[in-house]
Amino acid sequence: MKRSWRTGLCLTMVMACISMLLTGCWDRREINDVAFVLGSALDITDNGDFEVSVLIPLPGNMGGAVGGGGGGSQKPFTIKTTRGKTIKEAIDILQKSLPRWLYFGHRRVLVISDRLAQTVGLSPIVDAITRMPENRLTAFVAISKGSALDVLNADVRLERFSAESIREVLQSDSSIRVSLKDVTSSIVAVGEDAMLPYLQKKQTNLKGQEAEDIDVIGFALTHNGIMKAAAKDDASNGIRLLSNQFRPYRETIVDGNHAITIAVNTCKLKVKSVMIDGIARFDIQSDIQFSINEDSDLNRNYNDIGQRTHIEKLFEQKAENDIKKAIAMMQKSNSDVIGFGRYLNRAYPGKWKNEWKSQWETVFPKCDFTVKVDADLFRIGMNRENLAKKDKEDNG
Amino acid sequence: MRIRSTAKGDGRLDYNAISQLEHLRIENTVKANRKMLEELFEDSSDIVIREFQIEHGPKALMFFVDGMVTSSMVDEAMQALMVFEGGAFTIDAICEQTLPVGQTLQVQFYSELLVNVLSGDCGLFVEGGKTAVCLGLRGGERRSITEPETETVVRGPREGFNERLRTNTALVRSRIKSPRLKMKPFVIGTETNTNVVVTYMAGIANRKLVEEVERRLNAIDIDGILESGYIEELIQDQVMSPFPQIQNTERPDTVAAAVLEGRVAILVDGTPFALIAPFGFWQWLHASEDYYERFIVATLTRMLRMVCLFIALMAPAIYIAVSTFHPEMIPTNLLLSIAASREAIPFPAVVEALIMELSFEALREAGVRLPKTVGQAVSILGALVVGQAAVQAGIVSAAMVIVVSMTGIASFTLPRYNAAIAIRLLRFPLMLLASIFGLLGIILGVVAIVSHLSKITSFGVPYVAPASPISASDWKDVIFRAPWSKMKRRPAYLYPQDRTRQK
C-alpha cells in the first residue's frame, strides 16, 4: 500500500487529537494544585514515632499582583504536622487530608530535633530523603535545640517564612553551610563524621515588638549519624578554625581591664599527620589574619609594634585553646567531624587501608595533636588611634 | 500556428496569449495595420491610435496606451515627423535622421510590438515599411522613490524600490557601476506579460546557479504575476515548509550586497519587493545595517537576535512546560510569586497562554490590515484588554502577560518578516507539545524543526549552511560579523566563481 503525505498528515492529526485527551494524566500538575513545601521539621514522639511538620506557603495570602497584599493580618504560610512510624508514612497521612499535592522539590531547609538526632540518628532520614528524586539534596540541614517544630514555627518578622529565615541564617557567616548532600557523604565515609549547625529559637520580648528569631548556637557533632555532643562558644570557634570551609567570625578577647573585639578574617589551615611508634599524630598549623573592630583601651598606641604583638599573642593563645577544646570534645564524643581520618588516609594510604580504617573508632580518641596558631593583626581600622581620646599635644 | 479561426468562419483573431501572435507579421500598409489594431483593441478606450501624414511623405500611424507614455515627448516626436523635410521616407531613415527619441526598436512581428507598447512604448507604423518602430517614451504616473517601509535603518541608504522595474534596475545599477552586473530580461505571465529581470554579477555568481534560476523562471506557465511572491512560490525548492527559501527585500543596497556575494536577485515589475536566492537560516538574523555599523555592535546585535529568536519560538512553551511539569526548575521565590499571581486564575496554563497568544496575534493582524487612522484605536484596545483588564479580571495571570509581551517583542527583532511569521506560527505547536509532554515535548518539537531546517535547501544550497555542512571560513559572517578588513573572501557555500573580495 502506498502512503502519500496526505495519509501521513491525517495520521499525525489523529494522533495529535487523541493525545489532547491524554492531557491531565501523566505528571502534569498546575501550580494551583500544588502545595510547595519550603521547609520541614522532624521530631520524635515519646513512643518512638516520627513527627513530621511541613511549612507550606499560602499564595493567596502572599499578596500577588492583584488585591494589594494580605496586610499582615494573616500569615502567608501554614504549618501542618502529622505522626507516623516512618517519615514517609507521616507524609502520606498528611497528604490524605490536603486538597493540594505536597511537593518537596522546593524544600530548602530541614530541621531535626536534637532528641531525634541523639536517639534514632540521621540515617533513617537520609534514607527517606534520598529515595525520592523530588527531594533536593542541596537543602540545608540543621539540628534544633528542643522541638524542631518550634523552631520551624518561629514567628519571624524579617522574612516572610520562617523557613526562609532559617535558610538565610544557615548560609550566613554565623553558620557553616551543611547540605543534605554533605551529611550523606560524611555519614557514608569512614574517617569522617557529619557536623550540623545547632539552632535555637530566640525570643524578643520588647513590648509591641514580640518576635522570634533563629540563632545558631554552635555545632552538633555526630558519630555514625547519631548526635553525640554540641560544640558551643569556645569549642564552636575551634571547630570553625579547623573546618575546611572557614567562615569569618567575630570574637571579643580580654586584655586586663579592657576588651578588644576582633574580626577573624582568614584562616589557613595546615594539617600534617605523622606516625610515631605506630600512633598517629596531627600537627595543626593555623595562620590567621584578624583585624580590630573595637578597642576599649583608649590610650593604646598602635604605632607601637609591641602593642600589636601583644594583641596577636593574646589572640593566638585564645585560638589555640579554642582548637584544643574542640579537639578534646571531638575525641571524647568520638566524632571526627573535621575528617582527620582522611588526612591520615592521604599520608599513609597503606597503613590506613590495612589497619586504621577498620578500627578508626578506637584509634581516633587516642591520637595526639599539636596545635600552633600564628595570628597576624593586618588591619586596625580606619583610624590608627581612638578618635574619642583627648588630644594631648597642642598642634596649633 | 493558425491564428485566424476558420471554424467560426468570421476570420476573427483567435488566440489565448500574445505569444501566440509571434508569427503575425507587421503589414505593409498603414491601413491594414490600423485594421489589425482596431480589431485587437476593440472596446479598449485607453488605446490611442493616431494616423497622420509625414510632411511631403508617406502616411504614418502612431499608437500608444494613454497614461503610460510621456505625452509631451509623444508630441515632440510627432512634430519632428510632421515637419519632416527631405530625405528618404523609409523607416530606417526616419529612425536614423528624424526621430528625437533615445530608445527605438524595430520589430517585425505583432507579439513583440504589442508587449512593448502595452509596457508603455509608443508604436509607429510608416506606409510601405515592413517593420514597426517602438519608441521608448515610457512615462505616466508612478510612485516616487521613498524610504522602504518594511526595512528601515538608522544608518544606511534611505532609497527603496518602487513598483517600476526600470527604476529598480537603475537603483541597483547606480550602486554597482560595472559591466559585469548583468540584467537578464524575462517576460512571465501569459496575460500580464510581466517584465522580470534576473540580475547577477558575471564572473562572481556561480554559473549553474544562474542557469538554474533561469531554467525555473522559464518553466513558469501562469496567466499572471502580480507580485514577486508568485514567482517565489513557483520557483522555491520545497513547497511544504513554513520557512521562506527566497529572501525578499525592498532595499537596493541589500540586493547589491547579495549580488556581490554571488547570489542572484530577481526584480519584478509592479512590486517593490525583489527576490534574492539562495536564502538560508542565518540570513534571518542579518540586517543590512549590520554591515554599516561597527562590527562589535553588529555582532552583539546578531547575538541578541539569536536569543530573541529562541524567546519568540519557545518562551510560552517553556513557561507552560516548566510551570506545569517541572516546578523544581523555577527559583523558589519566583515560583512563589508566579503561584501568587496564578492563584485565582480559572484556566490551566496552556489555555491561559493560548488565549493571550491568540489575542496578541489577532491584535497584530488587525494593526497591519486596518487603515492607519483606526490603528491607534486598536493599540489602545489592545493595551487595555490584553494588558490590564485581563489581569484585573483574573482571566490571565500577570506572569503570563509578561511572557507573551516578551515573546511579541522578541519576534519583532527579527529583520526578516517572512521568517518571523514562520516562527510565530511554530510557537503554537510547541505550546501544545509543551502542555502534553512538558520539556520533553519542546525538545521533540525543536528536534523536528531543526531536522526539517537541515533537510531543506534553497537553490541547492543547504538551508543552514555554513553551519551544516560546516565551512569554517564563512563563520566570519554568520553570528559574528567580522570587520571588513578581515572578510577577504566571499562565502564558500555559494560556490562563487571568484572568491576573492580583497587581495
Automatic annotation (TrEMBL), chain A:
Domain Spore germination protein N-terminal: 27-200
Topology of this chain in the membrane: Lipid-anchor
Localization per record: Membrane
Pfam family, one: Spore_GerAC_N
Annotated Gene3D superfamilies: Nutrient germinant receptor protein C, domain 3
Residue ranges of domain Spore germination GerAC-like C-terminal in the record: 218-381
Gene Ontology terms describing biological process: spore germination
Predominant place of localization: membrane
Keyword set includes Metal-binding: no
Cellular component terms per the entry's GO annotation: membrane
Keyword Coiled coil (UniProt): no
Keywords: Germination, Lipoprotein, Membrane, Palmitate, Signal
Coiled coil region boundaries: none
Family: Belongs to the GerABKC lipoprotein family.
NCBIfam families: spore_ger_x_C
Name used for this protein in its record: Spore germination protein YfkR
Lineage: Bacteria, Bacillati, Bacillota, Bacilli, Bacillales
TrEMBL record, chain B:
The keyword Membrane is annotated on this UniProt entry: yes
Xref: Pfam families: GerA (PF03323)
PANTHER family (UniProt xref): LEUCINE ZIPPER PROTEIN 4, SPORE GERMINATION PROTEIN
Family note: Belongs to the GerABKA family.
TM spans (from-to): 303-322, 377-410, 430-450
Keyword tags: Membrane, Transmembrane, Transmembrane helix
Organism from which the protein derives: Paenibacillus radicis (ex Gao et al. 2016)
Entry keyword annotation includes rRNA processing: no
GO cellular component: membrane
GO terms (BP aspect): spore germination
Taxonomic lineage: Bacteria, Bacillati, Bacillota, Bacilli, Bacillales
UniProt protein name: Membrane protein YfkQ
Protein encoded by which gene: yfkQ
